[in-house]
Design goal:
The chain is of the alpha/beta class. The chain has helices at residues 27-35, 49-58, 62-65, 94-100, 111-115, 139-152, 176-183, 194-199, 231-259, 291-294, 318-328, 411-429, 438-447; strands at 2-8, 37-39, 42-43, 46-47, 104-108, 126-128, 159-165, 265-270, 298-301, 310-312, 316-317, 357-361, 366-371, 375-382, 391-395. A hairpin with an 8-residue loop joins β14 and β15.
């Protein structure tokens, strides 16, 4: 059996056709969703890139694997090692666990070089860095290496092929003809509207409406405006983002076509994190623990398991996918994994593993959030100069863009959400593999003059 995992940077699910988006951004991804299962409430346990992907390879939350940011002590993976033989089996990496159960694991990614993420590059049967770029490589450049590998390995079976595309991450620089084709389709977003954009003009900080690029530099690409001053500017930027998704989707299809008959091939499509499109006045980046940053797509087509066109609405983490893959490969989930396998639910869409989720962001803001089916609470420990209140509560069914803080209006709900956060923190602190909270390490660093 072959397993192919497309990991697409900064991909919002609500900009994909299979999640209801009104522009043709993702025909290849949509076709896979029609053949498999779409997950509607799937979240990264930590954001952004470095914490999210370390969560996936370790099956552990950032509070337990030590990675909650990019750079510095809180970006170094905490892993128990054997003197000889690599990671202790209690915290084995997912790429090695799959190898232990008969799958060659092949990775195409420049991610370890971009973030000095040494552990991410270890344990694969084959590791391919497509070129010497560190995040600006295009899907075309990635596929040059991937398609060459597929052509050289025709007839090969029992492999896990991981492909990482960068393109939807800012800066949006898809080929201009692709931008023009996307611009021919009417805008498919109705928020933020003009009033909301006007209210964002005096928000300071990187990636805000008036400061879209650091140093207030002009846009380096015709696919993005210099600033977000009105809905025309918003549609300009959104079209740039959508064009990137369509460009990436085209390259997903190239790989699927090269693989040939997919009847015995599992296909997984997901992301490391999402992208803000005006939420809290942030445009085109990922600086906080908002819903739009942590909610990511997950599409799984698993032959003989996932019913065509099925969905799952249960709350799940990306660390749960790690455990699920190991179980599907015939292995046992390592003892020191936080993730819980939802393999049994792939046949029915009943994947309930959590009553609530807790996630964190530690690169720009320092925040932890609690998500229940109906509400999102965010506690901010460092706002990084943005306009985040110390505690915020949102009714996500009625306020998906988090525009109204209900913390003062709903004290009982706030108390319950705070209890969930305290309960979760306690659960982490008493685990046998607990370490000092790396988010506190980042906070203490920031207090040093």
């Amino acid at each position: 059996m072959r397993i192919v995992f497309f990991d697409i940077d900064s991909l919002r699910p609500d900009h994909l056709g299979c999640y209801g988006y009104g522009r043709p951004t993702s025909p290849a991804i949509d076709a896979i969703a029609a053949q498999g299962m779409r997950f509607d409430r799937y979240y990264c346990a930590d954001s952004p890139c470095m914490p999210s992907r370390h969560g996936w390879i370790t099956g552990r939350f950032g509070i337990n694997n030590g990675v909650v940011t990019h750079g510095g002590p809180a970006s170094k993976l905490h892993i128990l090692e054997q003197r000889y033989g690599g990671p202790d089996e209690r915290n084995q990496l997912v790429q090695r666990k799959l190898r232990q159960h008969g799958f060659d694991t092949i990775c195409f990614s420049n991610f370890p070089t971009r973030h000095c993420a040494t552990w991410f590059g270890l344990g694969w049967s084959e590791f391919h860095s497509p070129n010497l770029k560190t995040g600006s490589e295009t899907a075309d450049e990635v596929n040059e290496a991937v398609l060459r590998w597929i052509a050289a390995n025709r007839g090969r079976d029992d492999f896990f092929l991981y492909i990482n595309y960068w393109d939807p991450h800012r800066v949006y620089e898809a080929p201009r003809d692709g931008y023009d084709r996307m611009a021919a389709h009417p805008p498919a977003v109705d928020w933020p509207d003009g009033e909301a954009i006007r209210g964002h003009q005096d928000i300071d900080g990187w990636f805000t409406a008036s400061h879209l690029f650091p140093g207030d530099r002009p846009s380096p690409t015709p696919n993005m405006p210099d600033a977000i001053r009105n809905t025309d500017d918003l549609n300009h930027m959104v079209t740039g983002y959508d064009a990137e998704i369509r460009y990436t989707d085209h390259h997903v299809q190239q790989v699927l076509d090269a693989l040939g008959d997919l009847n015995d091939t599992a296909v997984i499509i997901s992301a490391d994190h999402g992208e803000a499109m005006g939420e809290h006045g942030i445009y085109g980046d990922h600086v906080c623990a908002d819903e739009c940053i942590h909610r990511i797509p997950l599409v799984i087509k698993w032959p003989g398991v996932t019913p065509p066109g099925s969905t799952c609405g249960d709350l799940l983490y990306n660390v749960d996918l790690s455990a699920t893959l190991i179980e599907l490969a015939g292995g046992e989930v390592p003892e020191y994994f936080d993730g819980r396998s939802f393999a049994e639910g792939l046949a029915t869409g009943q994947c309930r593993q959590h009553d609530y989720l807790v996630w964190g962001h530690g690169l720009y803001t320092l925040q932890r959030a609690v998500r229940t089916p109906d509400h999102l609470m965010i506690r901010t420990y460092d706002d990084f100069g943005y306009r985040f209140e110390p505690v915020a509560l949102y009714d996500m069914g009625n306020d998906p863009y988090q525009t109204r803080n209900l913390a003062d209006d709903e004290p009982e709900i706030l108390h319950r959400m705070d209890h969930y956060l305290s309960e979760w923190l306690h659960e982490q602190r008493v685990k046998p593999y607990a370490i000092p909270d790396p988010m506190e390490v980042v906070w203490q660093e920031r207090q040093t003059p």
